[in-house]
Fold:
Amino acid sequence: MTAGDSLRTVRAALVVLLVRFVFRAVDIVILAGAKRGTLRAAYLRGWRGPSPYGASFDRTLLARERGLSAGAFTYGEAFVSVARGILRRHGVGSDSVVVDLGCGRGNVLVAARLLGAQARGIELLPDHLAVVGEALGLAGVDVEIKDARDADVDGATHVWLSWATWDAEVRSSISQHLRQLRPGSVVVAVVWGLEDDAFEVIERSRAAFSWGWADVVISRARAADRPLSAGARPGRA
Ligand SMILES: C[S@@+](CC[C@H](N)C(=O)[O-])C[C@H]1O[C@@H](n2cnc3c(N)ncnc32)[C@H](O)[C@@H]1O
Structure:
């Protein structure tokens, strides 16, 4: 590695630290003003546990057991303010149901609850929910330890997929699974968009995450040839 490379690496690491500092400060301000103290508590609870970023032998074993690459559990998270902005822009409100597949410490779910939506998180790695699960429950968030490929997305109006490090086969299996979403439902996918004819891309943008800036591809479940089932109502966005 040349001196120039080292300098670039150090500079990139400093930028990430600065991004985390600034956006977390914004998150704290937003949560300080939240009516529900339980949401603030759920957000802060994550900070009191062990770092979610570390690798471990258990994670590697679980990944292998599930046929996932070890990288699947690489951690990174959304900022509450950023997730709230994206969800709000795409119609999330009190009659929405937001499902985060791979919810980690639950920042997206906290953002959904700030907007008054129902929030459901699916997470395969027990470590994260061991720390924040109870506090999220008190904030009205349902969380479940489960593989995203088997998740119950029934009734979801919005699905969040922060799946940057997941294998292509896993992403493809989840895309198939999401075909059961009602027409009009919105899927927010980070880095990789949904590649499935049952969805149309409605927005491409970039946003800040705990690891830096990343692409966000937003898709909507198409209505064509997919009649609504009895009693179903379309997503709001
Ligand atoms: C990049 S983190 C995103 C966390 C959260 N969604 C956010 O945006 O703040 C991805 C999460 O997905 C989890 N994960 C990875 N593979 C999974 C799978 N097959 N099923 C459920 N969760 C998974 C990881 O443990 C990790 O917590």
Remarks:
- The longest strand covers residues 199-209.
- Residues 68, 72-73, 75-78, 100, 102-104, 107-108, 122-125, 128, 147-149, 160, 162, 166, 170 surround S-adenosylmethionine (CB under 6 Å).
